[in-house]
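subagent[fold] <- orchestrator: predict structure for attached chain, return tokens only, no commentary.
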Amino acid sequence: MKKLLFVFALTISFFANGQNLYIKTYGNKNDKPIIFIHGGPSGNATLFEGSNTAEALSKKGFYVIAYDRRGEGRSIDPNATFTYAEAFQDLNSIYKTYHLKKATLLAHSFGGLVATLYTEKYPQNVSNLILAGALFSQQETYDHILDSVKKIGTKKNDLAMLDKVAFVETLNKNSAEYRKGCFELAGVNNFFKIPNPTEESKKLYAAYDSGEFFKTNIRNKNAPLLFYQNEKQNNIDTRSSLKKIKAEGIPIYAIYGKQDGVFSDDQINSIKNLAGKNHFALLDNCSHYLFVDQQKEFLSYMSNWIK
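subagent[fold] -> orchestrator:
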């Protein structure tokens, strides 16, 4: 109860300072800090917390900070702009509030773009950059999704699916509608799900679905629209930024699911070569939400890499 009251008071202080951020910490503040950066736009950190990943990671000897970006999830803010600059402001406020000199950034999905651009701008603040199922070449991801769905539709003679692909291909590639169309096709074709869920992953997903965190799984449908409206860097390839970060001596680690349908083999090989063989892991029977699909392996890599 004391811990819950402390977290609640901390959240209130952020509202008082105009940040409107939901933040929760796990573990001992004297341990090495890890900031989890969730996907989106319109995402949140509820699965990372509700699957017990945040707490389990803290028990490995880390001070884990989970938060929802401004205007997303539980960080409700009608004035949010959803730009990278705004995301950087919120990250800097976390560093200031928790008196962090450096922290490991653990970035999932779209959070990989946020974390990479932040590290490039503020390298002095980052001890390690970990890309976990993280985006780094958006157009290649979209092209791979559309090409893969075309093959599926052709094989099944699914004309409706092929028509949907053809329609998406006519859209502006720098639009929220194009992004939405690509990821809807990926979702319908189970690109985000593992083919053979383990008993452990079934339990973790079931616990999340029936728990308190799922009840606060808030999805702001306006977030992607406002992101594309306000952010000029809305379809980017961050590999040049990652190379610059690596050249500056900041360790980059990459961990991906072998069955994550949103990444091509070429993309996976590309990020493996960039991070380096000893800084890369490809988890089998694992898709996009790798910290749930193969949680034990995921936690083991985190512990070995950072410690």
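orchestrator: received. Logging for downstream: The mean pLDDT is 93. The longest strand covers residues 62-68.
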